[in-house]
Amino acid sequence: MKDTIEIGGVPIGAEHQPFVIAEMSGNHNGDLERALDIVRAVAESGAQALKLQTYTADTMTLNLDLPAFRLPVEHELWSGARLYDLYQEAHTPWEWHEPIFELAKSLGLVAFSSAFDETAIEFLEKLEVPAYKVASNEIGDLTLVQEMAQTGKPIIISTGSATLTDIDAAVRTARATGNEQIIVLSCTASYPAPPEQSNLRGIPVLRDALDVQVGLSDHTMGIGAAIAAVALGATVIEKHVTLKRVDGGVDSAFSLEPDELEALVENTRVAQLALGRPVIGPKAAEQNVLRFRRSLYVTQDVRAGDPISHENVRSIRPAGGLAPHLFPEIQGRIFPTDVKAGTPFTWDLL
C-alpha cells in the first residue's frame, strides 16, 4: 500500500487531512451557471476536490422502453423511471467540463471525473484530469478499470453492491498495469443509503485484505457516517453536493448543502487529528494538568514532635507531595521539625 498518494498535488493518507470529494453529479439541474455556483460553494467549504461524471445517455444504455430498462416502481427517488431518461437528465454535458474544471482549478480545487466508457477516458485525458474514479456499477467492467489505470494516474474504485471477489479483481486489474496509486471506497449503492447498512467496520477489513488506502463514498443523510468512517481509517470521503435540496434534482434528496459540506470538512479533520497514536499515557497537552493531581500536603502549621494525623496531613491538589495511598505509612509518625501549612509532604520531612 502506498502510504501517501497525491492527486493534483494534494497528499492523501492516514497522516493527512481527509481528502473530501464533492460530487456534483446531476445537481446542476441542466444549468451551467448553477454548476459553476456549485464549484464556488465547494471551494468556499474547504473541500479539496470536485468530481463530475462523464457519460451520455447513449454511452450508458439504450433508448428503449422495456422492463429491464426501467427502475423498479418501489425505488425511493426514481420510481419507474426509464434509464435513458434518467441519464439524459442527470448527465453533465461534455462541453461543460472544461469551464467547470477551469473554474475549479482557479479556486484551488482538484477537479476530476468518473469515466463510464473508453470515449470518456479519451475525452478526460485531453482535459488532463489528475485522477479517475470507477463508479460502483462499473467495477465489474475490468477492461474499463484497466484503461483508467493504464493512464498512470491515481484510480479511486467505488464498491457499492460489490463482493470482496469483485473488488479484489478490480484492484488486481489496476495493479497489473503497474499502477499502485489505488484507493478503494466503501459504499452502499442505495440512494439515500440507510446508515445501518453502511457496515463501516468493513473499512479496516478492506484496507488490510487489499493492502490499499480505503475511504467512503457516502450516500447517507448528514455527515455522521463520514466522520465515523475517518475514525475507522478512511482517508477519502466522497459526498454528493447541491446548492439547496429544496431546488430538487435527481440527486438532491441525499446531497449536502454548502454549510453541511463545510461542517463535514471541519469535523472529519477533527476526527483524523483525534486518532493520534496507539499509545497510553500523559499527552503533551496534559503537562500543566499533571501538576494539579492530588498529593499529600501539610494542611496546618505543626511543631517538632507533633504526630502525623488526618488533621495536619491530607490528600489535596496540587501535586508535589507523596502519593495519597502512602498516608498509612506515615500516619502516627513524628514531625522532626516545625513545618508550615502548604508544604508538600515528602520523605525529607521525616
TrEMBL record:
<dbReference type="GO" id="GO:0016051">
    <property type="term" value="P:carbohydrate biosynthetic process"/>
</dbReference>
<dbReference type="InterPro" id="IPR006190">
    <property type="entry name" value="SAF_AFP_Neu5Ac"/>
</dbReference>
<dbReference type="InterPro" id="IPR013132">
    <property type="entry name" value="PseI/NeuA/B-like_N"/>
</dbReference>
<dbReference type="Pfam" id="PF08666">
    <property type="entry name" value="SAF"/>
</dbReference>
<dbReference type="InterPro" id="IPR020030">
    <property type="entry name" value="Pseudaminic_synth_PseI"/>
</dbReference>
<keyword id="KW-0808">Transferase</keyword>
<dbReference type="InterPro" id="IPR013785">
    <property type="entry name" value="Aldolase_TIM"/>
</dbReference>
<dbReference type="GO" id="GO:0047444">
    <property type="term" value="F:N-acylneuraminate-9-phosphate synthase activity"/>
</dbReference>
<protein>
    <submittedName>
        <fullName>Pseudaminic acid synthase</fullName>
        <ecNumber>2.5.1.97</ecNumber>
    </submittedName>
</protein>
<dbReference type="InterPro" id="IPR036732">
    <property type="entry name" value="AFP_Neu5c_C_sf"/>
</dbReference>
<feature type="domain" description="AFP-like">
    <location>
        <begin position="295"/>
        <end position="350"/>
    </location>
</feature>
<dbReference type="Pfam" id="PF03102">
    <property type="entry name" value="NeuB"/>
</dbReference>
<dbReference type="InterPro" id="IPR057736">
    <property type="entry name" value="SAF_PseI/NeuA/NeuB"/>
</dbReference>
<dbReference type="InterPro" id="IPR013974">
    <property type="entry name" value="SAF"/>
</dbReference>
<dbReference type="InterPro" id="IPR051690">
    <property type="entry name" value="PseI-like"/>
</dbReference>
